[in-house]
Amino acid sequence: MTRPASTAGYGEAAERLAVQYEGVTFAEVHRSLLHLYPAPPAAVLDIGAGTGRDAAALAALGHRVVAAEPTPELRAVGERLHAGSGVRWVADALPTLPVLGAEGGHYDLVLLTAVWMHLAPAECPPGMDALARLLAPGGRLALTLRHGPVPPGRRMFDLPPEHTIALAAARGLHLLHRGGRPDLHGREGVRWTELVFERGR
User: Fold this and answer.
1) Residue numbers of the domain that contains 35
2) What's the CATH number where 19 sits?
3) 133-149: per-residue pLDDT in tens?
4) What SS3 class is residue 91?
């Protein structure tokens, strides 16, 4: 697949980013959201899975996990680090997620951890369309929004939570949780908004 603009700066830094990503645990990153995630076995999709930290942890809990990662270097690191985890890797990217859309699968939980901020505002409506189509009835979408300075060479947008909440509501996804947390890597000026939505049954 052609590299989307949203992945700028990630391929060449894959090995260094793997150390960063794997340096915090799934439980640490998702602590305030875990009670909102379905019990295993559920169908889980991790979009922008990076090196597979979260995907592998969810698979270890007994979920059926698909990890979608558009950056081949990150995907290769993830497949190496988490070999034997049972995670199925897919090369696909927002906003349209053409590969996953063509598969026609539906998921009980969709994760976008540190991903949504890479979409330009104009890409967010088609992105939310794609996400809504992938959710099973009663399925939940958990995403984080980054706020603060943008690292050199990366493409990020400081999207207001209200914008994302409105996009989700227009597609039948109602807000279950809105919270915030500091940056787990201690980057100055960086903070995160956490949002969880549920599709109607």
Assistant:
1) 5-199
2) 3.40.50.150
3) 999 999 999 999 999 99
4) coil
